[in-house]
């Protein structure tokens, strides 16, 4: 059994509970005020799972369907980056629990033959599945706005989100490595297993780091017209 300090355990539990409440609050509001772009009905609650009260406040100010006025550039960029965040969140939730249920998945991606650390092997399917979800979110944003064919929409979605998702995953993996290996293992003697609140608390922090690295990339993508401004 892997043990963590009680203070960390309680803080992690509280952070996850608060984020879940924020996601539920957004979902409840969306039930009465659905987004004009239907995919955002999924993006907003999903991003609150890591963004917590910050994303709740952001949604309340710039995301609600009855909001008046044009959003400033930074808010449009944050919305664009949130597509990546939603995709990465779903990708990581899916893959991490799949590996728990089916450990052989890690061996398919190089553990322990190529990677002595199982975490690094799992990051490969994490990226691939997050990329697939992220492209799906972007596809259902671009196609209705530009009225594209399915083939054109898929190409545009990949072009718009490849750099963004990659930038997000770099920041996320970097922070996750710092927490798991620089804090948990170095300071506590072990990394957090997936089936622990400490792991998902670390993932919340890692997702925020991913947002930070994806934000300037999304600013560039929107400024150059590769990604739609929302």
What does this entry look like structurally?
The protein is an all-alpha fold and 230 residues long. It has one domain (6-223). Helices cover 78% and strands 0% of the residues. The protein contains 7 helices and no strands. Helix 3 (73-101) packs across helix 5 (118-146). The longest helix has 39 residues, at 150-188. The radius of gyration is 18 Å and the shape is globular. It starts with 5 loop residues before the first helix and ends in a 7-residue tail after the last helix. The mean pLDDT is 92.
Biggest sheet descriptor: none
Structure annotation, total helices: 7
Shape: globular
Proportion in helices: over 70%
What is the count of structural domains?
1
Give the percentage of residues in beta strands: under 5%
End-to-end separation: 47 Å
Summary, kept brief:
With 230 residues, this protein is mostly helical. 78% of the residues lie in helices and 0% in strands. Helix 3 packs antiparallel against helix 7.
What's the arrangement of secondary structure elements?
Elements: H1 6-32, H2 40-63, H3 73-101, H4 104-108, H5 118-146, H6 150-188, H7 197-223
Characteristics:
230 residues; globular
């Amino acid at each position: 059994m892997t043990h963590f300090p009680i203070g960390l355990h309680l803080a992690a539990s509280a952070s996850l509970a608060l984020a879940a409440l924020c996601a539920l609050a957004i979902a409840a509001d969306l039930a009465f005020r659905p987004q004009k772009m239907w995919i955002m009905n999924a993006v907003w609650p999903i991003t609150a799972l890591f963004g917590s009260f910050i994303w709740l406040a952001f949604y309340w100010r710039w995301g609600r369907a009855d909001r008046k006025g044009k959003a400033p550039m930074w808010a449009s960029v944050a919305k664009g980056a949130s597509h990546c965040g939603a995709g990465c969140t779903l990708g990581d939730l899916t893959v991490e629990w799949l590996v728990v249920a089916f450990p052989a998945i890690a061996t398919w991606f190089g553990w322990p033959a190529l990677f002595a650390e199982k975490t690094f092997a799992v990051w490969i399917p994490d990226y691939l599945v997050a990329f697939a979800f992220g492209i799906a979110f972007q596809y259902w944003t671009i196609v209705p706005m530009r009225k594209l064919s399915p083939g054109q929409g898929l190409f545009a979605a990949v072009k718009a989100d490849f750099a963004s998702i990659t930038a997000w995953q770099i920041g996320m993996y970097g922070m996750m490595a710092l927490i798991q290996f620089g804090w948990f293992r170095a300071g506590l003697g072990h990394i957090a297993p997936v089936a622990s609140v400490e792991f998902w608390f670390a993932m919340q922090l890692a997702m925020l780091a991913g947002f930070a690295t994806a934000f300037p990339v999304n600013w560039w993508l929107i400024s150059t017209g590769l990604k739609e401004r929302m």
